[in-house]
Specification:
The protein is of the alpha/beta class. Helices cover about 40% and strands about 10% of the residues.
């Protein structure tokens, strides 16, 4: 989806992090292992390894105010503007369901960054860290979607951001605490957490073209085209466990899955897109993942 002409998005929503490619504190491989353990199991080992949990916005800079035209051409502006739309959508949807809403922090980094979950490099890909309630994105990741077989495009990139925002929704609604994220396998809680975040991303996408920016009075995004929808579904499929295993040259092993298959990720995004409700996205209440 492209941002609606006349839109304008305030600066300061996304902080710029990163430290020139040097992993801080516990350093290098240890920091990355700590982060991977936390993201995939929910076990925080940072205190036992000496990994430093520095403030995310190390540079002190933020993404400046962007026009709709800039958001349609500049990836950091797209990141910031997409968050603005997500804030508005979930800021209404969660209270309507009886919950309390709070915005996640957001960081755009290059090369490497220190986080509340440990240290990360760009090779980690976009992720959400529950302890510091922050979304971390190196926007150069979007170039890698094509390497995984996806067509790049605005909605494909927005899907990635919306998925990570979905993890924040899970964090503030208690799903992260309730799920057993230490397991793996096609029916595991780890997979259910990821598929639910895909479904939440679909919920946002289905409503984004009718969600009005309270600051400008115009809808955030133009209506989705069929091609843009296919791009988003392609991005979901590209990051399926089976596709990544195939791309790495190994065999497909469902017992090791932590995110779900390409088919599952497409299907749950579509469920959220078409049904648009938290109830429809309850991946923990179904045996048919």
């Amino acid at each position: 989806m492209t941002f609606q002409e006349g839109g304008s998005f305030g600066g300061g929503r996304v902080r710029k992090g990163g430290n020139g490619g040097k992993i801080a504190g516990g350093g290098g491989a240890i920091g990355l292992v700590v982060l991977a353990i936390y993201l995939f199991t929910g076990v925080d080992l940072s205190g036992s390894t000496g990994a430093v949990q520095e403030p995310a916005g190390q540079t002190g800079e933020t993404v400046p105010e962007c026009s709709a035209e800039q958001a349609n051409t500049d990836r950091e502006c797209l990141y910031s503007a997409t968050l603005d739309s997500l804030d508005t959508y979930w800021g209404a949807a969660i209270p309507a369901a009886g919950g309390q809403f709070s915005k996640p922090d957001a960081v755009s980094f290059t090369d490497a960054v220190a986080t509340g979950c440990g240290n990360a490099s760009s090779s980690t890909g976009p992720f959400y860290c529950p302890p510091d309630a922050t979304i971390y994105v190196d926007v150069s990741f979007f170039d890698q979607l094509a390497q995984l077989g996806a067509e790049d495009g605005p909605l494909a990139e927005q899907y990635v951001i919306a998925h990570e925002y979905g993890h924040h929704v899970q964090n503030i609604t208690g799903v992260m605490d309730q799920a057993d994220r230490q397991g793996a396998g096609a029916e595991s809680d780890s997979v259910r957490v990821e598929l639910q975040a895909d479904c939440y991303a679909g919920m946002w996408a289905g409503a984004a073209a009718s969600t009005v920016d309270p600051d400008t009075g115009v809808t955030y995004l133009e209506p989705i085209t069929q091609q843009q929808l296919q791009n988003a579904l392609g991005a979901a499929a590209a990051v399926g466990d089976d596709n990544i295993q195939e791309q790495s040259g190994g065999g497909v092993n469902p017992d090791s899955w932590t995110h779900g298959s390409s088919e599952q990720r497409e299907r749950w995004f579509t469920t959220g897109y078409e049904q648009g409700s938290l109830q429809a996205c309850d991946t923990f209440a179904t045996d048919q993942l």
